[in-house]
Amino acid sequence: MTLERSNIAAMQGYAPGEQPQDPNTIKLNTNENPYPPSPEVAAALSGFDVASLRRYPNPVANEFRQVAADLHGLSLDNIIPTNGGDELLRLMLTTFVAEGEVVATTKPTYSLYPVLAAIQDATLREIDLDAEWKLPGDLIQQLREMKAKVFILVNPHAPTGSLVTSAVIAEIAENFDGLLVVDEAYIDFVDPALEHDCVPLLHRFDNLLILRTMSKGYSLAGLRFGYGLAAKNLAAPMLFKTRDSYNTDAISQRLAATALASQDYAKSTWDRVRQSREEVFAALNVLGLACLASQSNFLLCTIPDSIGAPRAYTMLKQEGILVRYFDQERLRDKLRISIGTKEENDRLIKALTTICKGNSSAR
Questions:
Q1: pTM score of the predicted model
Q2: Whole domain around residue 245: which residue ranges?
Q3: Average pLDDT over residues 235-251
Q4: In sequence order, what are the residues at sequence separation of 6 or more whose Cβ sits closer than 8 angstroms to the Cβ of residue 183?
Q5: Of 238, 261, 284, which marks where a domain is finished?
Q6: Which end of the chain is less packed: N or C, by CB atoms within 10 Å?
């Protein structure tokens, strides 16, 4: 006998990237920022009044929401604080998607989306990206025909790192009758010369929800803090009806607000990641490991059949370097590699050079 709901019994859970126990492992598999949080965050943590933990935190994280509102040119009514960006996704589904309604995503995409849709007992529909990993030209038509209630788009895309322009996002929001969720987990690593910014679209569209996280750009993956940006009428039911009571704790609220206010420091780490991304991109291509141009903090590279992506993954792991392999359609010949520090990137390239040379000499 099982007490699980039938949809839970039938589904598979989310498989997170490997978390090594050896501190010497080079961890390039879960897209964390390779640099520590700002000095201001360290100071806020060391100066936190432990005695205050006997009291409940601010229920809606108003200190953080004010910092976020000021940064984005919005009001408190537009900010939804959550326990990581993943909680915002679950909150969105709980609030807006009924059993059996259609949740649409691209294929491939962030592998948590299908899991959360299955928990909600929604119907998942996947829309194939084209041969160049771009959205299909008939996207709106497909969304209409499948009667999608929600379309979730990670942008920059995972796992390719490609970017959909704000103009295209606006076109989707304008022509889609459902809720458009743009997951901007990796937005901080976009080249600033592109002047990409979807936040102003919130003033035009009340069916647009933007996800932000403190995990990537602000080096707080271990803290679990994220937030949503949306029009007031879209944010209100999540803030005041379906959100868990005290869903973010007092320490997280303080550190997240401090990190978000430390813009100069955060931007300096983004600049370093972008520079390293270009260096690793060039080095991988020299080795014959073709990479897609990326606007994120990772690269998706193709491993020649003569080596094989699973074999390359295993050989790197034996050298103490973790990357991500996906046993999925269109990805089985590829590895996703997070950008690390210069020293970590150099070790990666050295290991891959050995793998490629060994393969060449064996032929």
A1: 0.96
A2: 39-261
A3: 97
A4: 85, 89, 110, 152, 153, 154, 155, 211
A5: 261
A6: N
